[in-house]
Amino acid sequence: MRTALRDLLRHPLRSALAVLGIAVSAAMLLDMVMLSGGIDRSFASLLLARGYQVRVSPRGTLPFDSEATLGGLADVLRRLRADPDVAAAGPVLGTAVFGRGAADSAVVLFGYGVEPGAQGMYELERGADLAPDDSLGVLLSAPSAVRLGAGVGDTVVLAARLDPQVASASVERRLVVRGEVRWVYDYRDQPSVGTLLPVMQALAGEGARDAASAILVRVRDGADLAAATARLRAAVPEAEVRNVDDLVAVFRQRLVYFRQVATILGAVSLIVTVLLVGTLLTITVNERLGEIATLRAIGIGTGRIVRGVVAEGALLTAAGGALGLALGLATARYLDAILTSFPGLPAAFSFFVARPDALLTAALVLAVTGTLAGAWPAWLAARAPIAATLRAEAT
Amino acid sequence: MRRPPPTAATLLAAALALAAPAAAVAQALPGIALERALARSLGVGVGDTVTVGTAPGTGRAMRVEAVYAPPPDPVSLIRRERRVRLHLPDLAALLGAPDRVDRLGVRVRGAATPESVAARLNAAAFGYHAWDARAIAARSSRTFEVVSRFHRAIGVITIVASAVFLLCIMLLKVEERRLDAAVMRFIGVRRRTIFGALLLEATVVAAVGAALGVAFAWVAGAATNLFYQRFFDTSVVFSLVTREIVAFGAALSLGLGVAAGALAALRLVRTPPMTLWGRG
Lengths: 395, 280
Hints:
The complex is a heterodimer. Chain A is of the alpha+beta class.
């Protein structure tokens, strides 16, 4: 290894350029490994953020992917809660509402109707949660608090079904802000408000009575999730029942483009690394054929010479890889900032997730690739005829 | 879990459940147009009868009047939704939502601008919001702006990697000529001539590399289009190798190649010939 290091330092410029080239390739490889696995992991952890593993939505739809609602809610909930493995089932109704706070002008908000005792949609940040019978309370997100100019303890008005002809709302509710929450699935700057489910159903209109957009189900710890999902599917055949794995599979299908881009660019990075290490070592070995022949002539074993050349490749790859790791993490943050600005994407979602297994995979793949790239030059060095090489060098 | 702005298309795609084709074909049935991929997956064609409803067991028979190829829309293709088109009263009856639409298209008259009409409509009443077509286009193209920014960022990283790779290869390529350069210096060839010869060689290598790169890009682009157009059953063009892109790529490769070659050649001609010969 020491000899390999000395050989590399004999050509500092070319070694530095090779390390830099490998670093950029390693950074790209790391980013692509993070991208390919990060989407699934990030989405799964987002879905499990509140511990609810199953989603029930109207037939043929994904949760909150359309305006469709699930009717006969009381009956559906009764059947879901009858399952022995269901620990909690929380219905959610989403609808557009108008709000008025300190500023008198109406702002468009997204309203969630929830059951506070079984909700997987928000985390309380300040103030108090809604009580199960608190039909006069409302929860705000930070963006909705700003737009309404309201805080905990203030009164806001929610209105819905505005009639353009008479310029008035069909229904209005004066509600007191109980707390400020972070809605887990909101996109960046989404102004959301939350009330008890019956309040939001009343705001949404006659069609939303006894209806919900989706139901979040938490299965008991230790229960077989797949079996529980199958039973729930049979219990509510009129609805779409998907567990986290099913939803991740659907989401993965939608973002298949990014996974394929990650695979292609990761492969290109590896090819560039192989070419760079291979070319550099081939030329280095060609330059040192006389020296290698002399070493072999005085009895140095072929294996030692091969190990020396392979070690040079491994050293270059290790140095480039270490630099590439730092570079990759920095570029991943930049690329993630670009992709997470997709409109409508939950703010908590990430495309590039720096997981230990991703880092390890990228490092291992790079190490193996870089080391193997030295195999061809090493084979050349080992196969060079000693006498002919020495004669050629002498002339 | 976001709630997208309501559109007839999303509502329709979400709310309808299509059952297997019924046997009887009646001309009096309401008509429906099916997207090509949906018709293929259901195994139905023009003249067949399908049952359409908002939930299993609540369907209504409809006659397939047309099978259409969807417009090449990148947004809808990644959602992998299958769509149908119905006459508005039929859909309203199906959904139990008469006298209601998700949106209206308005054509302005005479010299009025869409922006001014939208502003007047918004000031006149509330309960709706009017947008001019340009504003809608700007909002709906945000997804593609993000993808485009991502591609540009990846492109910059690729260019940096290529530049370093090219510099390294050119340096090695020129250094391979150490002995040739030493001999030329010994026999009296001027440094400038050696520099010119090495630069010419670097230019030829860069030009051939750029040409091969353009050919590879064209083949890769065609393969990408072939794969994704079949994968998504669409005519959307995924990879476009334009003249501007070719010119940019070729100019960059040539520029970087020549610059790298020049740097390496300069370094070589400044080295004493005995050192190049290995005796310095």
